[in-house]
Design brief:
Helix 4 links the parallel strand 3 and strand 4. Helix content is about 45%, strand content about 20%.
């Protein structure tokens, strides 16, 4: 009797974790996370596709998702999603250190540079020191959402930092608007005769 009761309790203890795991929804894939988040993102938000050693940031607006995919796969997917979006376009930044990373210290660095060069062909890529980019992202994370897609790439300074910009309003249109506003303000500031 006691053994039978013991076996029932033991069976229940073994089955509980299995039942609990079966009831929880499967975690969303990184692609689903990008698709789910993209309609919410806009001008001044960031999407980062980072190497495996990129630190977990603590700013409230920074969300990190593990992709377990290569840098090239994730960058290609994100750019495709952005190209099909109606509201945002990418302003791309990369680490100024990357061109100087030698293969002897980081095997695969040259191959990565060629691969990412092909992926980013046709895009304007701005190069800045790594710490400068991190400071911008830290500042942006205080007010705006930053989606960090962490890859399994193990080469330093390979991260691709994408600041989102408005697709239907160009930088030139913004400059013209600001010029008109300044001219209008100057006219209103002149004393009437």
């Amino acid at each position: 009797m006691r053994i039978c009761r013991f076996l029932k309790i033991l069976s229940l203890l073994v089955a509980l974790p299995v039942l609990a795991a079966a009831q929880q929804p499967a975690p969303a894939t990184w692609k689903a996370k990008v698709a789910q988040t993209m309609p919410l993102l806009g001008h001044r938000n960031w999407i980062l596709v980072v190497d495996s050693a990129y630190p977990l940031q603590t700013s409230a607006g920074v969300e990190t998702v593990e992709t377990n995919a290569s840098q090239a796969e994730v960058v290609g997917y994100v750019l495709d999603v952005l190209n099909h979006s109606i509201h945002v376009r990418p302003d791309i930044y990369m680490d100024a250190e990357l061109p100087f990373v030698p293969d002897q210290d980081a095997p695969g660095a040259s191959a990565y540079r060629e691969q990412i060069g092909r992926l980013l062909h046709g895009y304007k890529v701005q190069s800045q020191p790594h710490e400068q980019i991190i400071a911008q992202i830290d500042e942006a994370g205080k007010l705006f959402h930053v989606l960090v897609l962490k890859t399994n790439t193990a080469i330093p300074y390979t991260s691709v930092f994408i600041r989102l910009n408005c697709k239907y309003w160009s930088d030139d249109a913004e400059k013209r608007l600001r010029g008109k506003m300044s001219a209008g303000a100057a006219q209103h500031a002149q004393p009437s005769q």
